Amino acid sequence: MKKKDLVDQLVSEIETGKVRTLGIYGHGASGKSTFAQELYQALDSTTVNPNYSPQI
Fold first, then answer.
1. What is the distance, to the nearest Å, from the Cα of residue 31 to the centroid of all Cα atoms in its chain?
2. Is the dihedral of CA 39, 37, 32, 18 positive or negative?
3. Can you give the residue ranges of every domain in the chain?
């Protein structure tokens, strides 16, 4: 699955309430923060917890 397709699928599932919490894990330098930022930017700002921190 391409990253864009995954982001689109996750956005859909988050916005419909199927997914409420999402964990992203992997080894160092695998792109977790980059992926989280791309997902954050794709989501409606009212959907995201305002306490979101990419440093967590």
1. 12
2. negative
3. 3-42
End-to-end CA distance of the chain: 26
Which pairs count as long-range contacts for 31-37, CB under 8 Å and 24+ apart, including other chains? 35/3, 35/7
CA dist., res. 19 & res. 21, Å (int): 6
H/E run at residue 3: helix 3-15
The identity of residue 3, as a single letter, is K
Q: Which amino acid is at 37?
A: Q
**What predicted TM-score, i.e. pTM, was given to this entire model?**
0.78
Q: pLDDT tens for residues 7-53?
A: 999 999 999 999 988 889 999 999 998 999 999 999 987 777 756 56
